[in-house]
């Protein structure tokens, strides 16, 4: 199997010039994401999971170490890495179809050409009939499906998901997780999935990296022993429970450490 | 029902005002306070002679051309200043100083610079409008959601595309607020300028009436001004809301 993404000894230090203080957001992080693999980063806020995503997305550069996409160094954002944010960040002045077609428009594709493509993706994310609606007229789950369609139209090498369902209510979140699993079966793309929800990490991922804070780093890697295709019913299976127990153990140990430090 | 309710309240409010005005005319002589009816008769008379419409057109022409010019230049500068911190840092102190120079005080200077014709008044309105538009647009451009910019860039947008397809649309509500504020300010400035240095316009009407104690004409001008301002403000409001329905204009 070929690796889509590789981080090699990545360290990220944020400097606060006003307070002359440095924050080590990430320390010595190395891992790879293989073709068609879903990797989940699981950890509390402040563990640097979003920093990892921002580095792979090309929004920020590592202070030390290397980030590669298909062997090439990452220097800036690109359409081959599709980013889905927690706060969807749709363009609220554009309709659903125009949001989805944004990447084609900036490439200079004519309206006559991009509309059928956009409609195809509207259909794929189950929003037929909402082509001409505006994001403000949609529910949270629908908006998130638009923002996923907006990156899928680029046929990306990898999806970078930054807690995409964290802002949704519990029922919608479960529906969206199932929906994304189904979508994954169709597209079979690589995925980096950031979450602080243990169930979500196990359900979505092939491998989970459990992260710790101060400095942000990977504490342990866990393989998820669940087969594909995944389904909601697995949430209560013995294999799921066993993995969850392992995750919670590691998280509890790390949290206790922060707790004792008065963090 | 709601729109009807608003209309009823407005009508009632104006009616109460007119009755109060009429009541006071029994206390003061007409040279101090002409009655609403006398004012209306005068308005009809000078509308027939073409004097009132001509002055309205002149004032509107000055306000709208200076304001439009200020809108274009102000929006452009505002976006640049909002997006480039070093330009903002350089320009902001100067803006802060000029903010406290009331446009009216520049009337005579602009006449020296641009002559007694329309140019000096249009430049004055431009000056009035441009600062307000710049300050508002800048605030908007500086507060564009970073996530929206990142989303666009990761979808393959270039710097210029981000500017025109994300930054400008996100700034629209702030621009509209700036344009509305600028319009009401432009209105106040033009009246003052016309009182000081013009041979036409509603401001000139007031000045002219004051010299010859033609109180009726003065009151016609007051009513005209309030109606012009009200209509213009509402039109801009309605138009911008219609044009930018999905831009979250408030």
Report what the structure shows.
The complex is a heterodimer of chains A (263) and B (250). Chain A contains 8 helices and 10 strands. Chain A is of the alpha/beta class and 263 residues long. In chain A, strand 4 and strand 5 (72-73) form a beta hairpin. Chain A has 2 domains: 1-80 and 161-263, Rossmann fold (3-Layer(aba) Sandwich), CATH 3.40.50.300; 82-155, no CATH class. The N and C termini of chain A lie far apart (41 Å). In chain A, the strands form 2 sheets. In chain A, strands 6-7-8-3-9-10 form a 6-stranded mixed β-sheet, sandwiched between helices. A 4-stranded antiparallel β-sheet of chain A has the order 2-1-4-5. Chain A has helices at residues 49-57, 96-100, 102-106, 111-124, 140-152, 170-187, 198-204, 238-260, and strands spanning 3-16, 21-34, 38-42, 64-69, 72-73, 81-84, 158-162, 190-195, 207-212, 217-223. Chain B is mainly alpha-helical and 250 residues long. Chain B has a single domain, classed as Orthogonal Bundle (MetI-like fold), CATH 1.10.3720.10. In chain B, helix 3 packs across helix 9 (202-211). Chain B is built from 10 helices and no strands. At the A-B interface, strand 6, helix 3 and helix 5 of A face helix 7 and helix 8 of B.
Strand content of chain A: 25-35%
Strand ordering within the main sheet of chain A: 6-7-8-3-9-10
CATH topology of the largest domain in chain A: Rossmann fold
Report the sheet with the most strands of chain A, covering strand number, pairing sense and barrel closure: 6 strands, mixed
Count, helices of chain B: 10
Mean pLDDT of chain B: 92
* Number of beta strands of chain B: 0
CATH architecture term of chain B: Orthogonal Bundle
Gap from first CA to last CA of chain A: 41 Å
CATH level 4 superfamily of the largest domain in chain A: P-loop containing nucleotide triphosphate hydrolases
Q: What is the number of helical segments of chain A per DSSP (H or I, 4+ residues)? A: 8
**Domain count of chain A:** 2
């Amino acid at each position: 199997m070929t690796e889509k993404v590789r981080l090699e000894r990545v360290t990220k230090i944020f400097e606060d010039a006003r307070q002359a203080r440095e924050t080590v957001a990430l320390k010595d992080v190395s891992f790879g994401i293989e073709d068609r693999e879903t990797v989940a980063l699981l950890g509390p806020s402040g563990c640097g999971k979003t920093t990892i995503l921002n580095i792979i997305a090309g929004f920020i550069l590592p202070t030390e170490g290397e980030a590669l996409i298909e062997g090439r160094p990452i220097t800036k954002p690109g359409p081959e890495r599709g980013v889905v944010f927690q706060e969807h960040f749709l363009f609220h002045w554009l309709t659903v179809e125009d949001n989805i077609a944004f990447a084609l428009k900036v490439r200079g594709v004519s309206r006559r050409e991009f509309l059928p493509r956009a409609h195809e993706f509207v259909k794929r994310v189950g929003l037929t009939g909402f082509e001409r609606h505006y994001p403000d007229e949609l529910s949270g789950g629908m908006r998130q499906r638009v923002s996923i369609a907006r990156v899928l139209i680029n046929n990306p090498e990898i999806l970078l998901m930054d807690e995409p369902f964290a802002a949704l209510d519990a029922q919608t979140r479960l529906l969206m997780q199932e929906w994304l699993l189904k979508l994954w079966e169709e597209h079979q793309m690589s995925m980096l999935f950031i979450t602080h929800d243990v169930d979500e990490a196990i359900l979505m991922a092939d491998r989970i990296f459990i992260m710790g804070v101060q400095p942000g780093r990977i504490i342990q890697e866990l393989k998820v022993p669940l087969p594909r295709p995944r389904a909601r019913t697995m949430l209560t299976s013995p294999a799921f429970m066993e993995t969850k127990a392992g995750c919670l153990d590691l998280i509890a140990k790390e949290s206790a450490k922060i707790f004792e430090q008065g963090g | 029902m709601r729109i009807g309710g608003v209309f009823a309240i407005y009508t009632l409010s104006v009616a109460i005002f007119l009755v109060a005005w009429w009541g006071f005319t029994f206390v003061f002589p007409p040279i101090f306070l002409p009655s609403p009816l006398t004012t209306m008769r005068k308005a009809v008379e000078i509308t027939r002679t073409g004097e009132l419409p001509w002055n309205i057109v002149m004032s509107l022409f000055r306000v709208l051309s200076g304001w439009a010019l200020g809108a274009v230049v102000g929006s452009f500068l505002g976006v640049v200043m909002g997006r480039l911190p070093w330009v903002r840092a350089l320009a902001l102190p100067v803006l802060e100083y000029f903010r406290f120079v009331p446009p009216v005080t520049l009337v005579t200077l602009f006449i020296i610079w641009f002559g007694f014709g329309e140019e000096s008044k249009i430049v004055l309105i431009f000056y009035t409008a441009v600062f307000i538009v710049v300050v508002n647009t800048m605030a908007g451009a500086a507060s564009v959601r970073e996530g929206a910019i990142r989303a666009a860039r990761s979808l393959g947008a270039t710097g210029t595309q981000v500017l025109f397809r994300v930054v400008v649309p996100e700034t629209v509500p702030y621009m509209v607020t700036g344009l509305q504020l600028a319009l009401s300010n432009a209105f106040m400035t033009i009246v003052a300028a016309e009182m000081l240095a013009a041979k036409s316009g509603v401001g000139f009407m007031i000045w002219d009436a004051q010299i010859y104690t033609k109180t009726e004409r003065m009151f016609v001008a007051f009513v005209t001004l309030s109606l012009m301002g009200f209509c213009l403000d509402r039109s801009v409001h309605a138009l911008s809301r219609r044009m930018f329905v999905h831009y979250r204009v408030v």
